[in-house]
User: Fold these one by one.
Assistant:
Number 1:
Amino acid sequence: MQGLKENKYQFALLVLVNAFVGAMIGLERSIMPGFGNVEFGLSANAALMSFIIAFGISKSLSNYAVSQLSKKFNRKTILIIGWLFALPVPFMLMYAPNWNWVIAANILLGINQGLAWSSTVIMKIDLVGGKNRGLAMGINEFAGYLSVGLAAWLASSIAADYGYAYFPFIPGILFAFGGLLLTIFLVKDTTHFVQTESLTSKFPLFENVWKETSWKHQNLGSVSLNGLVNNLNDGVVWGLLPMLLIQRGFSITQIGIIAAIYPAVWGISQLFTGKLGDTHCKKQIITAGMLVQAIAILVIALASTLPFLILASILLGLGTALVYPNFLSVIAEGTHPKQRAQSLSIFRLWRDSGYVIGAILSGFLADIFGISQALYIVSAITAIAGMIANHRMCCTTKTFWKSDYCVPTY
């Protein structure tokens, strides 16, 4: 039987597994640009962003691969495969003789994140059904991104005491093996829930899931665009923020605090913003979230003191929390159960392509115009995407403004 209460133990276990998934990427959030600069002598922003490009390409393609793998393997098997790709990553980073090893490690990390995070999202949606889907996504993303923030803080603390090389990546060994062992011995597959839900679903089957999810459907297509822009600005902040703060004379510890606050606020806030999407209009929530992100990025570009940068990090985390679980809920509630895994995978392909586009765009813009100017442009792009969502999407639940209610076309 579907339901959060009815499946609370398996749900909680998947939340823990996703925390390990988030911690794997969190180790890189605060130290990787400094690692490349100090240990390998990289100075050009475009070169430093290469690890995010490698990560983004492999993660986005791996997200899409889940939809194809789902035709041959069950959810649990895909999750195990995802963890197997994570096992070499900390060792490659610890013993990297050159930057190419770091790029290779990030390719494997992207595969891990794509397969493992997608699987935990889909499995939670399988478990809870429609009633608390937003809350479930909020809890899932809370666990993942809170652990990203905590791992970012941990890595920066280790780097401050022992340097960027070797030691900050040791916790990754525990995260990778812990996630794999939990999955093998305790996680149960959820594929059978889809069969049951399909019998009662009133949603039509799409003739072309790719077109509907990517651009044609007014809600799904808008979410795919905004997901791409969201991760575009996330990749920019991931790669350029530490370098900007180094230029402005902040210490490794201060950089770690600023870099950790953003995903921590992002994670914690999703406990509330996910549930908010169950009862109120996701269109309005997504629009507000994108505009808050745009303001936060603008503050980062302008701020030169720690309090303002902390405020910007909080705003960026809050804005991202407003959109992230509701992106997933829009996709899940707008597709037939049999096509849900495919639609979610396509959305996540577009969303994580934002890392690649953001890294390439901001790296070159930062080298040509400077980091602050690159952030101004990214802030404007984020605001425009939010306004597109406001113009195009429909509200399917209670609205803050009644005039925004409409029924999306299928």
Number 2:
Amino acid sequence: MNITVRPTLKVKSTAALAQFMLAHPAHWLAQGFGSGLSPVMPGTAGTLMGWALFAVPTGLWPAIFTPLFWGVAILAGFMIGIWACDRTGRDMGVADHGSMVWDEIIAFWLVLLFLMPADFATQCAAFLWFRLFDMVKPPPIRFFDRHVKGGFGVMWDDIVAAFYTLLLFAFWRAA
């Protein structure tokens, strides 16, 4: 029986990350089509990418990019993201490298799905609250971030941050 052991890749420079990203489709997806390569706040850059990927097509082709479409895309994106983030984390030797932002993209799509249609100010507020929850990681987000590993763990803690954001907006709208 032959066993192939994949050496871990610990990359630090943006150029090395870009080369790594282009080496496999899972890397390209997990790193948010390059948005995760931002040298400053890659999670925020990934969330901005998610916002653009949601808002632009929905605004241009609302008959195609319906809530049903986005619901299916989010579910599929979550499932594919488990694979892509797991593969990318293993290949990098870092379970949840900062350049992996597919989790932010999918989670922010979930926020937008439930908030839309919303004006620009509301979308900005949702963006800020989501980023705050994702960065501060209030319980149980921190628990999931520390104890649930692999691709599922990478994806799940951001879904919980999206839930907190939506819960905040539900309370705000009910008041």
Number 3:
Amino acid sequence: MINTAAIGQFSAAFRKDFSELMRWRRDVRSFQDTPVDAAALARCLDAFKLAPSVSLTQPWRLVEIKSEGARKTVIENFKSFNASALSGADGETAQGFATQKLKGLEVAPVQYAVFSDGAATEGHVLDLSSIPQVLDYSVAAAIMQFWLALRVEGIGMGWVSRFDPAQLQADLDIAQSWKLVGYLCIGYPTADSTEPDLQTRGYETRAPELELLAR
């Protein structure tokens, strides 16, 4: 239970649970063929309403990919991009992960293409020009908040980024001011783990300590 004795203070139990939540937030590639509970998903989507954004622009734009035609377009884009991108000495390893991601695209019951709207700055008084990417950063932060909310509900998410974004934008008839930040596959995972899949398979290792520079 949250300690409400002082604003912004949380109990040791809450802090422990939050740490565990971050450990269990994993990039899911294998999903059950089970519909996602609509009420749970709605609660998770509320995370976008609470997310931070530069100048309160709220630049995230979500497009749910539901129709058979739209999903086919996404899969063909993914296949086409990977066919040209997978080569070299690590081609076999890369192909294996591409295959996993493709399975997620084929099975995940809920899928969102998430965009950053460059026109979201219109009407806002603060100057955003010094770091043009801040809108994209705001969208990425909102996605992470959504990701944690999903995990609380026992729902998994896979973030897919291997697309031709311009072609996908054209095929889905998306406004030119929008920029693809992530494609999210959502559903109940077939298995849970506190370790990244790349680490479990022996391809990468998480750094044991944070390197903090001082100047």
Number 4:
Amino acid sequence: MLYLAQVHKNEFLNQYQLRLLARQEADYLWTIIPEEAFILLGKSNTISEKLLVLVKLSSTGSIEHMEDACDWVLHLVQGYLTTGISPEFLQQEAERAEEWRQSLTLQNQDLARRTLELEARREQIQALEESLKRERNGIHKDINSDS
């Protein structure tokens, strides 16, 4: 699993550790890690303190891959923050999409109701046509029997 982490020096153990800040849940979905979670890097690992890194952890919690997060952060800035896409904008768009979905649902329900009404009217017209045919046939029979 991929994490965003920050390098810290553990003074007590005299070695560097990663503080996990966020976890990738899906391609464009990250979750902030609210509690402090650390992974020791070992005594042989010397890395700049406060550096942001992307770290891939195995299912057992061992580090599979680690890289500087600078390019990733710049990609986020370029892709989202230079175009004016903010969390508020995304929230507004999500609300607009929900309003459209609700509007379309209401329109679909109204269309279904109208379709049922038209079908009922068509059946009434057919019943009236049949009734008129029977009356005509009855009148023709009466005229023919009088002659």
